[in-house]
Specification:
Layout (H helix, E strand, L loop, with lengths): L9 H8 L1 H14 L5 H13 L4 H12 L13 H24 L3 E2 L2 E2 L1 H5 L1 H22 L2 H24 L7 H26 L4 H25 L5 H4 L5 H4 L5 H9 L2 H12 L7 H11 L2 H19 L7 H15 L3
Antiparallel strand pairs: 1-2
Helix pairs in contact: 1-17, 2-5, 3-7, 4-5, 4-9, 5-7, 5-8, 5-9, 7-8, 8-9, 9-10, 10-16, 10-17, 13-16, 16-17
């Protein structure tokens, strides 16, 4: 496993390392969220107060730095990697707004979700506004390569969410189809965030491919852990309601493995609660008992570790540096996080 940098958790180390870039990035996010329509600004302010790890723009900024992007010095123009980091965050936040409406989620990052506060219609429309802001920033940047990569990721995210909807409640879903879902809904934007950093730096195609691979595998690990946490974390840790995936009948890795390992009676239970959607108050606890019985969370984290290791291996083409070590540690942190 990678060696930790100091006593801080890797994500905080990355945040500290990129503090100046993220400060500028957050200024852009705040500025470009403003609108002459009061409801847009109010809902945007709600999202800002809710916070978030800003992991995707952090990855974009870190990738640019890893590939040699420097400070502008006394040039007051906002650097490209900072502007595009904001673009990535707008795209991500827009998808969260739409996801919470589709999933009917009541909590997001420990606070009431935007749709719970402002209603579904406002959330969908402000999500559209944020998508538009993202594409405005891309257009201002002017790079066809950047536009191609981010717009492709945007389409892939939508496809991933639609695919997830089509396999919902279907216990015959294969593991490979599940991986296709999480690649679309999560890993594609991780990959685009990282690859854009190499493009901004005018780095080699080899660097682009390596960072794309890092982002893809990190995103796969990240989503696997997210799916595990829905059955293993506490609501306080996770910042959203525990068991949401279960109640929505989502077919995630823990459910697929639990169903595969279950005996005949347990399989009937899974079919009733997931496929038929016939759930009773005590069913979540029964599901957790089966998941614990077969050590499903351990299996899920083992799969996540395989992807995390692939992510760290992808960085081997870059010379050793402080940032190189931090990014490797981020992959390890992704598997061991509790929220």
């Amino acid at each position: 496993m990678p060696i930790q940098t100091g006593n801080e958790e890797p994500l905080q180390t990355l945040i500290n390392y990129l503090a100046d870039d993220m400060k500028e990035c957050n200024h852009i996010i705040m500025d470009r969220m403003q609108s002459s329509v009061p409801l847009v600004s109010q809902l945007a302010a709600h999202l800002i107060v809710a916070g978030g790890k800003r992991l995707r723009p952090l990855l974009s900024l870190a990738s640019a730095r890893l590939c040699g992007v420097k400070d502008n010095g006394h040039d007051h123009q906002i650097p490209r990697h900072v502007r595009l980091g904001a673009c990535i965050e707008f795209l991500h936040t827009a998808t969260l707004l739409h996801d919470d409406v589709v999933d009917e989620s009541k909590l997001r990052r420990g606070a009431e979700s935007a749709n719970a506060v402002f209603g579904n219609s406002a959330s969908v429309l402000v999500g559209d506004f944020l998508f538009s802001r993202a594409f405005q920033i891309m257009t201002e940047d002017g790079s066809l390569d950047v536009m191609r990569i981010i717009s492709k990721a945007s389409a892939t995210i939508a496809e991933g969410e639609i695919l997830q909807m089509t396999v919902q409640n279907d216990l015959s879903t294969s593991i490979s189809r599940y991986f296709e879902v999480i690649h679309g809904k999560t890993a594609a934007l991780f990959a685009a965030s990282c690859r854009v950093g190499a493009i901004i730096a005018n780095n080699s195609k080899e660097s682009e491919r390596a960072l794309e691979s890092y982002g893809t595998n990190l995103g796969m690990a990240f989503q696997l852990v997210d799916d595990a946490l829905d059955y293993s974390a506490t609501q306080e840790e996770l910042g959203k309601t525990i068991g949401d995936d279960f109640r929505e009948g989502k077919v995630t890795y823990p459910v697929l493995i639990a169903y595969k390992k279950s005996d005949a009676d347990e399989k009937k239970f899974w079919k009733r609660v997931i496929e038929d959607g016939n759930q009773k108050e005590e069913d979540l606890e029964n599901a957790l008992k089966i998941i614990r019985k077969y050590d499903v969370i351990k299996d899920t984290l083992k799969e996540a570790t395989i992807f995390a290791n692939k992510a760290t291996e992808a960085l081997n083409i870059f010379p050793e540096s402080e940032l190189h070590t931090i990014l490797k540690n981020i992959a390890n942190y992704t598997v061991n996080r509790h929220f």
